[in-house]
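Intended use. Records like the one below are meant for learning the mapping from a protein sequence to its folded structure. Do not use them to infer anything beyond what is encoded.
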Amino acid sequence: MLQVELDGTDLRILSALQEEGRLTNQAVSEQVGLSPSPCLRRVRRLEREGVIRRYVALVDPDALGLGVTAFVRVRLAVQNDLHLERFEQAVALFPEGMDCHLMSGESDYQLRVLVRSLSEFEEFMRGKLTRIAEISEITTSFALRTVIARTALPLAG
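Structure written out for the chain above:
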């Protein structure tokens, strides 16, 4: 996707919606100092151009008992397009996997995994992750405490 040209008003709209995605158009327009119709046109353009991908509810993992966060680093046996694609397709099926990043450095991928307990993490490892044939090495670190967890992107402007 090409980078979209955004002006200060667009950035203020994005900032307002990143803070509270359920704001009405009227509330957004008041916050950014724009009348409702032009504000709605800008929001629709931001959606159409893919700047705003979707609207979601942020659910507290602790409220659902998902108190264990694991950062799993994976090294593949072979790093070619076929093996990368196979691994990516496999991990995309695991609901415990919150993020998966192709990395530079010592690991090929890093996953953030949320589970209820260490025993559930062991089940995830033994029953899912280690069954991916392309993997040669797995290392895991567990988060002791979350210090920062942002969802809003830093906006220039």
